[in-house]
Fold this protein.
Amino acid sequence: MTLLDTHIGLLEALRSAGLSVSLAEGLDAIAALERIGWHEREVVRTAYAATVVKKQSQRVTFDAIFDLYYPRLVGEGVAGDPDGSASAEEQAGGVRDNAAALRSFREELAAALETGDDQRVQDLAVEAMARFGAMPGRGPGLSSWSAYTALQRVTPQELVEQLVAGLLRDGADPADAERVAGNRVGAFTRLVEADARRRLAEEKGPEHVADVVVRPTIDRLDFTSARRSDLEEMRREIYPLARRLAVRLTKEQHARRRGALDFRRTVRASLATGGVPMETHHRPKRPHRTELVVLCDVSGSVANFAQFTLLLVYALREQFHKVRAFTFVDQVHEVSHHFTPGGDVVEVMENLAASTAHAARWGRTNYGRAFTTFADEHADALGPRSSLLVLGDARSNYSDLALETLRDLAGSARHAWWLNPEHARHWGTGDSAARAYGEIVPMVECRNLTQLGEFVHDIL
Amino acid sequence: MTSWFANPDDASARLHATGYLADAATATTAYLAGALEKPLLVEGPAGVGKTELAKAVARASGAELVRLQCYEGLDEARALYEWNYKKQLLRIQASGDEGWDETHDDIFTDEFLLTRPLLTAIRRDEPTVLLIDEVDKTDVEVEGLLLEVLSDFQVTIPELGTVTATRRPFVVLTSNATRELSEAVKRRCLFLHLDYPDSEREREIVTSQVPGLSDKVATQLVEVVARLRELELKKAPSIAESVDWARTLIALEIGDLDEEAVRRTLGVVLKHSSDHERAVKELRLAATR
């Protein structure tokens, strides 16, 4: 593959991963590469990043694809075996993976992790894949490297404790030591996974690996398929998102600020110009603020989604007249008091999680009963000036749906919406009552932060 | 035409000499922006040195800095140029019995033109760094106005014709990403995301900005700030705030950043009361305030 092919391949892969790379930007990248040396990989990466990636949220995707097309090393490289002791054995076709090798490797790894030697850890990650991640003898088309196998053999997670003990000996405080140990082992795991991708790309060609390894960026990641670390990252995104939305809303409201003509002030002002109304005056437009009532399903399957939406709604509190939030599984429980102005995100989330217990009596989601209890106990929350927002996947375990109650609730509110975190193609499958409810309350698909942001912007 | 920097290392060294400690990516991108003569769009959280980068480039290359501060409602007259109509009126009155033909040719000349930052930067013959600060604060229409300037380095004035840059300025746009810039603007720029630095570089920055700081306190400070950034805070402390903190410690003559000292001076780096409480809890400081 020539350099140009690699370049074109990289751009194609970026485009299919959703980055909009224009022809001009591709040419810029080539112009930039002409100006810099090729001797350092990070410089090449920077040059590409500067010319081609114009959004920070896409940087993760870019880095993953760049690693495939411009791998850190080819095959074992020279770093795989620094002291050359194993090479003779390997050349002789000897065993690379046995209990003794594993033991000594883990010792080396523990030592490297403890000293925090990044270069050594990187080398060991490559070695781990070479020794323990190979799956020789598989048919063509099947991958012959597995990060999973390597990590199962090496079990770096078990080294955490040892590492903590080592750090404590050096005089770190316990909480710190645990955090550092966790971070380092996590970094090693990621390095091994990256090396597996590199080997696969080398074997099959990067274009085959690119569509598999690239995960959607955090704002397009589904709430229901997010990992724990993703959830934390998403939580950090909530406030910036709320800020962006608020800025956008204020700007749009400014653009629409001119209200009806204020006749009296216009005539008065015209006296200064001899009775000619040079400038018209307008009545300020009263911003319309709704009362929002949020009713959200907090059962296991959709809990994350409900929490994010609640957080976002509360971050935008000043855009609403008043917000009341209720959670339910089969019982309704008011949680408005957890959201104090300027409250701490982590604390709010903990309180919410704790209050889930109040929302469940039998522990099985029952939308029908939730709506009925809501109508009985909190009917006063809904009025002609309030809007109802229901959050949930509408999976009601085949129970009574109480469609009439929901129709009454929706009727008594000014607007009503239903946000569903499932893809629209799953609506109405299995025990999902999305179609039935969707006929009463307009149902909107809301799977990720981008869609959530768009929806909240539209209702304001 | 001399280029701005000879190579990435040169960029790094010269920025360093002006007191701006750039990491490898920043230095390389700054060099590329100069070599390719393309505008540089810098994004990142508040207080990581986006504006400072433009100033440092200006200092490092001995160029003059022309700054356009963007705000909501910024228009052509404030960004590009404006006709000095008062002077034009005077000219018309003073012309007396001169014919209209001579006068109307006369009043649209250089003499009556008030240049604003964008035009100023383009017309200068000496090396110039043009800083377009907080470009995300402007309205979308202003972006359209920037396009001609950013891609061809020229401004079209209907009465005078097109003014083309004799010497292309080094353009830096900064953005806090409160709004997505249009694809058209992004396409014309090189992109750089500045983030919080690693602890090693932050320590260098703090010690170079605050001379009297002892190594021990600097290390402790950087460590605490790094911990704070890992917490879920509404506003993570920026570099500017760590430097402020270092100055505070000097002013209070605190020689050891122990828990007590952290607790007393935390207000310098954390500006939300809920952040404050979270930090006290996470860092296990004695919560007696």
